[in-house]
Amino acid sequence: DVAVPGKVSTRFDLEKVTELRFEVEAGEAAEQVELELLTGMAEVFGSELNRNKKYTFGPGSKIAVFTWQGCSVNLYGKPEVAYVSKDTPMLLYLNTHAALEQMRKQAERDNERGPRVMVVGPSDVGKSTLCRLLLSYAVRVGRRPTLVELDVGQSGVSVPGTVSALCIERPADVEEGFSVQAPLVYHFGSTTPGTNIKLYNKLTSCLADVFSRRCEVNRKASVGGCIINTCGWVKGSGYQALVHCASAFEVDVVLVLDHERLYNELKRDLPHFVRVVLLPKSGGVVERSKECRRDTRDEKIREYFYGFRGVTFYPFSYEVRFSDVRIYKIGAPSIPDSCLPLGMSQDDTQLKLVPVTPGRDLTYHVLSVSSAEDGDEGARKGIVESPVCGFIVVTNVDTQTQVMKVLSPAPRPLPRHTLLIMDIRFMDMK
Ligand code: ADP
Fold first, then answer.
1. pLDDT of residue 397
2. What distance lies between CA 312 and its chain's CA centroid?
3. pTM beyond cutoff 0.90
4. Any residues with Cβ below 6 Å from ligand 1, and which?
5. Is the peptide bond before 413 cis (omega within 30 degrees of 0)?
6. 3-class DSSP state for residue 109?
7. Residue numbers of the chain with a pLDDT score lower than 50
């Protein structure tokens, strides 16, 4: 085999049903690590590796190379850690996939709908990874499942602060994950559901409606079912949001990762026909620090504007007059019930569109461009429930000339003029 020039290579011979776990050092200066399958067969989170192809993993990557039959692989470069583990829950995960596939077969036979699965658990237990695995296994046997991403902190589909749905048509790319084409994305605006739980639940219902309507007209989507990834917030309102999601999507299966109490609570609170299954987490899942999460979020926004790996995007920077756009924040600060106008409830305030007067403090904020038609006051009603068509970042505000400068993936003009402000900020260091 041809080594990677200037890099040490380390060979690992894996027995069957074991995995090689490795982490690439984080940080700008860190060196990438290449992986090559030499003999046998292996997969990374459900996607098969090609032999004698070098896969590159960048700073901060945490990878498991799993083999059912045994294999040997080479790593080029210096991973922060690399070890082989015999102790993996992969067999249980595969059995879960087999059970879901059984349900799809039955749905096909009986002209019913396929399994709707919700994956829950605290943060850093491998929820996203399990979703990816189950989706990749499903497409590999010819299904067309849908990924529903409800993790507003670490979205695998769009920028942070959004919820979304994506039809999965091919297994995740080993290096890049799922190809994200034409996702359905809604604006939430912050990285934790707690900032506006009413809005969060509302958007969950919106996604469920759209998915159900698609299932009515698309048999493959219906049989394929969906895999819903959720937030790691599993207490209080976070728990209520999970129960709400289960009911909105009419889920059939809930996979609880590594949290016995949550498992018992859901078994108690969900209808009896919902199958709640407790699964162990993989010992390989790595806990991420606050900083690490923030960096990942930042990176996700950077990718949106500048592309990643082989693909480079060239975003545009242009000026937008305040008078040409309408900027809103969703949700007014809550006020005591006794002070609410007659006939108004707390729900109304959380879903209310509050006009934002552009000022200096708008700088660096990420704004969603709503797909809602630019219209009069009447049209405002549908904005919360309209998907977004893209994102911009405010890079400068000039209150004197009433103009703001924005970073945008497309040249001017903006496709729509209704903008929704996020709590999330992005400083463009390029
Ligand atoms: P969650 O969605 O529950 O927050 P993730 O699925 O994002 O957790 O997993 C956290 C991190 O652990 C990710 O970087 C993922 O690549 C890594 N990871 C998951 N499973 C393994 C494993 N078996 N070996 C090594 N790393 C893993």
1. 97
2. 22
3. yes
4. 21, 62, 64, 123-129, 232, 282, 284-286
5. yes
6. helix
7. 1
